[in-house]
Amino acid sequence: MTQIASYASDPRKSRGRRFDEGRAENGGSVRGPRDDFQRDRDRIIHSISFRRLRHKTQVFVAPDGDHFRVRLTHSLEVAQIGRTIARSLGLNEDLTEALCLAHDIGHPPFGHAGEDALEEALADHGGFDHNAHTIRTLTKLERPYPRWDGLNLTWEMLEGLAKHNGPVSEPTWAMAEANAAMDLDLGSWPSLEAQIAAVADDIAYDNHDIDDGIRAGLLSIDQLLALPFIAERWSDICTRFPDIERDRLVPELIRDQIGLMVNDVIETTVQRIKETGVETADDVRKAGRMIGGFSDDMAVKERTLKTFMYANLYNHPEQMAAADKARVVVADLVTAYRDKPDLMAEGWAATLPSAEPDRIRHIADFMAGMTDRYASNSHAQIFGVNND
């Protein structure tokens, strides 16, 4: 195992898995050379829900162009950034990578539009949250093993997924359910690996969504130059490459921005580790604050960029129109499955509970697992409408 810092998560000190997997001759797994966090990462990669991210919305609903990002490619990019930061800080790269790869598994079709529709459908039954549904998917809905439901991930993996953005004071029903099965200490701060996974997600989508927005023609460099810190980077790039056309310089801008943010996170986190004096992973959980993240100055710039992206890309009229259609598709399907359960896939229809709230939650589980394409095709088959 690569040497790691004392405050990193150590698989040899893991709090374990919910189910004892035992020895291979007694029905357990063949362990081989991998440690527990490496096995968690590999279980995510081999899961059905991870493969489905290939056809789930990142920015653009059911994108036709092969060059646009989807949830799967976004997750891979987050993992690359997370590994880089984790290695620089002496953290556990395997746990960081596993958290990055898994963080969006709970997203339903059509991104936040689909989530809004499911949240409305479950409003009287505990609501819907993609982060909590990630854990529900990985602890209950995935079923590759004969003796238990879920992937039987380590405590550190589930804890990181539950609270990578900080302590959870008001867990949704799905989060509370997972916590009851395996106490995730929701009131404490997450591991540094989870904190880095969260900021790697921000870095990836802040910058790669710019790339996709420009490629789609919904954003322009001239719009971005209204942001002083973007304008400064662009000026420097144009000075370095005075003879290159603008379009060829956009990837350079994205790389520069990612590099600046990554370096800022590394420098800031090293400083906060010194300030807080944390020496162990449990010290990190008791630190009373996030340690891994942006400096105050970069945090302001990052929030400014997010505000710009909402105003100019995420809330662009074309995007809003697509989101409205997506919400209708999801809402229509929920209604259809409630009225005629046999319309669901055979295995799901056969196991539909008879009473609420389990009934609507079962339908939401089925819906959340859909890809954009599957949801659109199902809607067209039931309602005779093509939603492309």
UniProtKB/TrEMBL annotation:
Region called Disordered, residue ranges: 1-38
UniProt domain HD: residue ranges: 71-206
InterPro entries membership: dGTPase (IPR006261), dGTPase-like (IPR050135), dNTPase_2 (IPR023023), HD/PDEase_dom (IPR003607), HD_domain (IPR006674), PHydrolase_assoc_dom (IPR026875)
Signal peptide stretch: none
Keyword Hydrolase attached: yes
Record field: compositional bias (Basic and acidic residues): 10-24
Keyword Hydrolase: yes
Keywords: Hydrolase
Similarity annotation: Belongs to the dGTPase family. Type 2 subfamily.
Name of protein: Deoxyguanosinetriphosphate triphosphohydrolase-like protein
Organism from which the protein derives: Parasphingorhabdus litoris
